[in-house]
């Protein structure tokens, strides 16, 4: 039987065999600011191809406000290039 865990609006989807493996991947995604949907399913083969593709892409550099480029409003798109809102991304760093 499959069980869905993770965050709403997830961008990375994985299928794993155990809760421990799902938590390992969730910690990795949290540390990078990625949203995740993890499905625990013993009946299907493990599929982490979505995660592997994301890991292969170069990381956008962390951004911080400077005197030349002050912080944007919290609801504006983050200047680091992640595509997320500033308050969901670099404001928390």
Largest sheet: 3 strands, mixed
Q: What fraction strand?
A: 15-25%
Percent helix: 10-25%
User: Number of folding domains?
Assistant: 2
How widely separated are the two ends?
38 Å
Strand order of the largest sheet: 1-3-2
Shape field: elongated
How many strand elements? 3
Helix/strand/pairing class, anyone?
alpha+beta
Helices, by number, come to 2
If you compute it from the alpha carbons, what radius of gyration comes out, rounded to the nearest whole angstrom? 16 Å
**In terms of per-residue confidence, which ranges show pLDDT below 50 for 5 or more consecutive residues?**
1-10
The sequence of SSEs as H and E is EEHEH
Q: What is the average of the pLDDT values?
A: 77
Account of the protein in words:
Helices cover 24% and strands 15% of the residues. With 93 residues, it is α+β, with helices and mostly antiparallel strands. The chain has two domains: 1-59, no CATH class; 61-93, no CATH class. The protein has a three-stranded mixed beta sheet. Helix 1 (19-32) links the parallel strand 2 (12-16) and strand 3 (36-40). The longest helix has 14 residues, at 19-32. The radius of gyration is 16 Å and the shape is elongated. The N and C termini lie far apart (38 Å).
